[in-house]
Hints:
Blueprint: H1 5-52, E1 55-56, E2 68-69, E3 86-90, E4 96-97, E5 107-113, E6 116-120, E7 126-134, E8 142-149, H2 151-186, H3 188-202, H4 217-261, H5 267-288, E9 297-299, H6 300-314, E10 321-325, E11 331-333, H7 336-353, E12 357-365, E13 368-375, H8 382-387, H9 405-415, E14 419-424, E15 430-437
Parallel strand pairs: 10-12
Antiparallel strand pairs: 1-2, 3-4, 3-8, 5-6, 6-7, 7-8, 9-11, 12-13, 13-15, 14-15
Amino acid sequence: xxxxxxxxxxxxxxxxxxxxxxxxxxxxxxxxxxxxxxxxxxxxxxxxxxxxxxxxxxxxxxxxxxxxxxxxxxxxxxxxxxxxxxxxxxxxxxxxxxxxxxxxxxxxxxxxxxxxxxxxxxxxxxxxxxxxxxxxxxxxxxxxxxxxxxxxxxxxxxxxxxxxxxxxxxxxxxxxxxxxxxxxxxxxxxxxxxxxxxxxxxxxxxxxxxxxxxxxxxxxxxxxxxxxxxxxxxxxxxxxxxxxxxxxxxxxxxxxxxxxxxxxxxxxxxxxxxxxxxxxxxxxxxxxxxxxxxxxxxxxxxxxxxxxxxxxxxxxxxxxxxxxxxxxxxxxxxxxxxxxxxxxxxxxxxxxxxxxxxxxxxxxxxxxxxxxxxxxxxxxxxxxxxxxxxxxxxxxxxxxxxxxxxxxxxxxxxxxxxxxxxxxxxxxxxxxxxxxxx
Length: 438
């Protein structure tokens, strides 16, 4: 059987309360029994002292003869037959008994240690007893045993036991009730969090917020971050679809124009445009299968250096100077393919527009990784900078491209909670600055 969190809390609380009550009850029971018996044994010891004072030895008695016990006073418990109060003296030639025993014997006498005795009387009654050693007039080592009725003590102890059981049963029920209330009260923030998630799922609210207490507010914050991240991933997927549709428009429009202008479309044109569309589809499928916001530790400099080497070959005819000014041991947490997609788009764009030089630099500060790609090309004006990140926006149809690179990079950066900013570069051209959480 699977228990929920409330059931686990109630069960563990009930178990702990039961163990605590049983342990406390056992300790209190044992202490009370010991106190009651010790009190009764104190009375027996006092009587033993009085009895010891009554023993005397005859002048003509031998060393092995027992002392003589003087006759008790009228009403003495040890003088009434089967009164429940008995004594016996051993260690001499014969065992002497109190008159109250008459000619009967005590049975099942047990020595419990420390001078404590248990026995069964002539009427089959339970007896408590004490023993002490006597040495009257230095004439030998004798042992005096004094017994009294245990039943009054046992009756009182049973009464106390019943009271303890009732008290501890009530205490246990109270602790169980407290456990129930504690579980219900303690899990109220979780119930509110669950209700908040249901409202988010129904569209009644966009965020969970922080209204669940200091323990659950961090969890609510993590869930809000996850919801925002999923929303960015969905937006990114929509952007992928829009990018693919936009990229396919050009080859399709070209093929449609050729088909309208001639009865037969040249086979080479068809094959070229089909290859172009297949490459676009494969590229977007690869992007769709990328990390989409997954977090891995990626070293930055080797990735930038590899991209710079590749672009140096692609733009070899122009003889551009590719400078990589990225410090060693600089890391970013994210999916490597996403990093390469962003940097590849921005560095390729810089390579298309640069006259002689492209510079890539990076730094990490206050938990933010900043990557700057500068070129010494013509740059963009203020109005053009505002429009540059729009999908498909191109300022020169002579330069190869689809106009999607900046928008794609901005979308991926947003997936990770970052941003792409465009400005004038110190080299005179365009500066593309990626700001990403490190």
